[in-house]
Amino acid sequence: AMLLPRVVLFLAGANAVSAFLSMPAATVAPSVGHISTVAHTHSLRASTKASGLLMAQADTVTTSTVNKRKTLARKWALNEGFYQPATQQDLLAEDYVFRGPIIGPLNKADVLGTVGTFKVYEAFPDIRVDVTEFTQDTVNPNRFWGLMRVEGTHTEDLVLGGFAVKATGKKLDIGPELISLTFNDEDKIVHSTGGYVGDMHEGRKAGGLGLAFGILKCIDAPAPRPGGKLFKLSNWIGNRIKNFPKSKSHVDDLPDAWKHQGRTYGLRSSEAWE
Fold first, then answer.
1. Structure pTM?
2. DSSP 8-state secondary structure symbol assigned to residue 167
């Protein structure tokens, strides 16, 4: 008695699948794919706009501009201030903002001030930074992506906001880091991202972390767990201290598109650095 309903349901399902598969290909795939692609593109454009990134139509960015920006992006990535001295500050727009997976948004003054407190290149004198050629984003023509790999040995003290980690002789073991740069119409960088490890199976010593947190893990230095209570407390204190790494810029020092992610306490950028 229970078998008959099951057989009916099976046959009905089989007939439905057969009818679907017999439909012309143009009736099935293109319409679904087109709707999905368009919806996905609109969604990405909306999220990009909300995050403060500059968007442009693909046909408004010429081939020569694309090639120029690829060159500028690599030039900045090799001299961005954290792994190497910031020798290309003129490439940054005045409304430049950095955003990482843990830190940010940071404005131009707070970025340069924060990376300047670490001087990783002094603690790792043999540091080597390799960066791939950059490629244009498929949705945002103003944005360019690259891959960075870093090697080095901790043979000098690493200064961390007022205290130093003595040389350990340990090597950096950080996975490949994804970085992106977004340009404005004057070919100045208005936004960058970094610290995103692209392969969790490489650089296991860093625990999947990049930038400062990855380095601290590699040399077994004490560091708060990202997002934890100690991490939040250290940021709360650090954002109030002059010449100390900042986790976010003050809301009043950020471009309008980024203000909703800024902090409402602590030092302003004009007060934070000497």
1. 0.77
2. P
What does the alpha-carbon distance between residue 61 and residue 185 come to, in Å, rounded to a whole number? 9
Residues in the chain predicted with pLDDT less than 70, given as ranges, are 1-59, 161-162
Cβ atoms < 10 Å from Cβ of 144: 25
What lies within 8 Å, CB to CB, of 237 at 6+ separation is none
Return the C-alpha torsion angle 255, 260, 266, 269, nearest 10: -10
Q: Which of 257, 229, 230, 234 is nearest to 245 (CA)?
A: 234
Strand 189-197 to 92-99 pairing: parallel
Q: Is the peptide bond before 245 cis (omega within 30 degrees of 0)?
A: no
pLDDT tens profile 15-37: 443 443 444 444 444 444 444 44
Among all chains, which residue has been given the structure tokens 């004009």? 270
> pLDDT tens-digit profile of 140-189?
999 999 999 999 999 999 987 667 899 999 999 898 999 999 999 999 99
DSSP string, 11-29: HHHHHHHHHHHTS-HHHHH
Nearest Cα residue to 247 out of 237, 257, 256, 255 = 237
What pLDDT is attached to residue 52?
Answer: 56
- At a CB cut-off of 8 Å and minimum separation 6, what does 109 contact? 253, 269, 270, 272, 273
pLDDT of 48: 53
| β-pair type (143-151, 163-165) | unpaired
Contact 160, 118 (CB under 8 A): yes
Q: What angle do CA 10, 15, 16 make, to 5 degrees?
A: 100
